[in-house]
Write a structure and sequence with these properties.
The protein is 42% helix and 17% strand. Strands 10, 11, 12, 14, 17 and 21 form a six-stranded antiparallel β-sheet that branches. The chain is built from 21 helices and 21 strands. It folds into three domains: 340 residues, no CATH class; 112 residues; 147 residues, Jelly Rolls (Sandwich), CATH 2.60.120. About 3% of the residues have low confidence.
């Protein structure tokens, strides 16, 4: 009789599932299970502490704002809330109707922190389900001590994976809830439990992405399940139907219009919408484009799979689900979805289950080979954790405590009815209101009071610092907004828009920048009198009076200009911050009143942006493409005389003439 492969059956009798005569877990893994539950409980506590730190530090971006706004408004009776971040009704984001029942929980703990804690529970709950499942598989293939090694290896894969921490660090996403329901659904189907169907409805309520999970799992059941193929067929149909229905009702605007996001592969150069048959035919006739796109993201593919065991791809019941997740994420334009984040949670949680099944099957046939690969998989998973886990705070917690304290004080002052426009790196905490938006693009203006909050040097920020400075200058100047605070790197303005103003355009920051927005270690802002006279003055200490006056520019020649007044020696410097290189310096003995100092800048050399990518076999790619150079103007004083800096500019220039 031949030994069946790791995916030859979808279900197994009790004896094969590691159960005794009365259905109780065999003693062989009872201790391992207890240890696993304890370790995962500690991980949940760690997640909760980390989420609390992120929330307290305002380290929450537009994705959190979308869910927080909807959750808050639904709880307060706005049953069809408008998503002012995405500019559509919230249900049109991803058709995540699970937010409506979740809104009932608001009144138990009325804080946005609850959303983060719920996703922590979802991820660790899914890991617990996966752990119990892989314990069954370990007992099935290798009873005795070998089963302990296999289950222990699976526990390590679940616990040390750094990407699960990154997944819960990035705002709130329904995928963190969906992964719990897909894990429960897959485990119950494998065990032949009728209650499996209970998990389908809450899973599909997590949105269009969850529909793809149902489809992938259904195909796996259809292929691998003996006597269960009808369930697989029904499951696959439900997944496809859900995704198509959501597309028809335009409930996937947050997904790049769903399947249309992949039309660039099926019909290169096409700008129109494709039907599902046209999309499928286009992908089939352009396989080269698919392979090229996957190859361009090979580092992230490896990072997602290797940290989770990798070998689990040979576990047939879960293979189609893994393929669906891989293709959906990596065929999307850009690197946003291919990066190791929440989009790949089914890989991080369910692939270890398949890995244990494959290792168990190999151990049954060649014990030495199975145990050797178990050790290799475990060691390399620990390697991923050692390389990337220490980077988690640097990546996600970029807001200092004093800045967070200032933001908390401002948040408490803003009425619910007022609109808030804020830097995208901190916008999440301000979303418990009808109108909240990040500071970019065109800002719709409604009658009432508007608040503008800038944190250009804190958080995960996409707005350029020059744009933030220029906009702050406009608010203080021609818009006549009231400066509420300028503390700890936070600028806050309150504005009453004039009648007839319905839209603001956020400036790009190409013009001169007000120096009062960027005092250095030896400078302080002077904000008295008309805003046209606001400036930075020296404190008497040696150092930079003004710095961080920065623009993003492609390599070339520029002319830097600084409007200042100095009663003693002063240096005007231009730096390429991308490469940390001094480009130009002009030393002055002083000035005769307020003068504009100019100097040519040779910035022809481009430097690669420093971006951590791991090392050796533990590499991942974050970000896409070549970035502009960060060119900064600084004004330095030896501290012996008064220096006032008013504004600085960076314009296109030409090489100085040699004649």
């Amino acid at each position: 009789m031949t030994d069946p492969g790791p995916a030859s059956t979808l279900t197994a009798p009790d004896a094969a599932r590691g159960r005794g005569a009365h259905g109780a877990p065999r003693p062989v893994l009872r201790g391992v299970r207890r240890i696993g539950v304890l370790v995962l409980g500690l991980k949940l506590a760690g997640f909760a502490w980390w989420s609390t730190q992120l929330y307290r530090h305002f380290a929450l971006t537009p994705d959190f704002a979308q869910y927080q706004q909807a959750w808050y408004l639904i709880a307060h009776g706005h049953l069809n809330p408008y998503d002012t971040v995405g500019n559509f009704r919230f249900w049109q984001n991803h058709a995540e109707f699970i937010m409506w029942p979740l809104a009932l929980l608001y009144w138990i703990f009325p804080s946005g922190l609850q959303l983060l804690l719920l996703q922590d529970i979802g991820v660790v709950g899914a890991e617990l389900v996966a752990f119990l499942w892989l314990c069954q598989l370990a007992e099935r293939y290798r009873p005795g001590r070998d089963a302990r090694w296999l289950a222990g290896a699976g526990l390590v894969l679940l616990v040390v994976n750094p990407w699960s921490w990154w997944a819960v660090s990035f705002d709130f996403h329904a995928e963190c809830l969906a992964v719990l329901f897909i894990a429960l659904l897959a485990w119950d189907l494998w065990n032949g439990r009728r209650r499996a169907w209970v998990w389908v409805l809450p899973l599909l309520a997590c949105g269009d992405v969850a529909g793809t999970y149902v489809f992938g799992l259904g195909i796996g059941i259809l292929i691998a399940g003996k006597g269960s193929r009808w369930r697989g067929a029904v499951m696959a149909f439900l997944g496809v139907f859900a995704v198509l229905f959501i597309s028809v009702i335009h409930g996937n605007l947050g997904s790049g219009h769903g399947l249309q996001a992949y039309s660039y592969l099926a019909a290169p150069g096409s700008t129109g919408a494709l039907t599902l048959p046209q999309l499928a035919a286009g992908l089939a006739t352009h396989p080269g484009a698919v392979l090229v796109k996957l190859w361009s993201k090979r580092l992230d593919l490896w990072a997602n799979l290797a940290a989770s065991g990798g070998l689990g791809l040979a576990f047939l019941p879960l293979l189609p689900l893994m393929v669906v997740v891989i293709l959906a994420n990596n065929l999307f334009r850009g690197f946003l979805f291919s990066e190791p984040l929440f989009q790949s949670l089914p890989i991080y949680i369910l692939l270890p289950v398949g890995t244990v099944a494959v290792l168990g099957w190999l151990s049954r046939r060649r014990r030495w080979l199975g145990l050797l690969l178990t050790a290799v998989v475990t060691v390399q998973a620990i390697g991923w954790s050692m390389v990337w886990s220490p980077r988690t705070p640097h990546q996600w917690l970029r807001i200092p405590g004093p800045t967070a304290a200032t933001l908390a004080a401002i948040e408490a002052r803003i009425p619910f009815s007022d609109a808030v426009f804020t830097s995208q790196g901190v916008v999440g905490r301000f979303a418990n209101r009808i109108d909240v938006r990040p500071l970019n693009g065109h800002l719709p203006i409604q009658p009432g009071v508007d608040w503008f909050i800038f944190t250009p040097w804190a958080g995960i920020e996409t707005q350029k610092t020059a744009a933030a400075m220029a906009f702050a200058g406009q608010l203080a100047g021609p818009m006549h907004a009231t400066l509420v605070t300028d503390t700890d790197g936070v600028w806050v303005f309150r504005w009453h828009p004039p009648r007839g103003v319905h839209q603001l355009e956020v400036p790009g920051g190409s013009g001169p920048l007000p120096a009062w927005t960027a005092p250095g270690s030896a400078g302080r802002p002077v904000l008295t009198g008309p805003s046209s006279g606001w400036h930075v003055t020296s404190t008497g200490r040696p150092g930079y009076v003004a710095d961080r006056l920065e623009w993003d520019r492609w390599p070339g020649w520029f002319e830097a200009s600084v409007q200042l007044a100095a009663r003693g020696p002063v240096n005007v410097e231009v730096w390429n911050n991308t490469g940390d290189v001094l480009l130009a310096r002009r030393s002055l003995p002083g000035t005769d009143g307020i003068q504009i100092i100019t100097l040519p800048v040779d910035a022809l050399t481009g430097y690669p942006a420093p971006l951590y990518a791991g090392w050796g076999p533990f590499q991942a790619k974050f970000g896409d493409g070549i970035k502009p150079q960060r060119i900064e103007i600084r004004v330095w004083t030896p501290g012996s005389a008064t220096v006032n800096v008013y504004q600085a500019g960076l314009a296109s220039g030409h090489p100085p003439s040699t004649g």
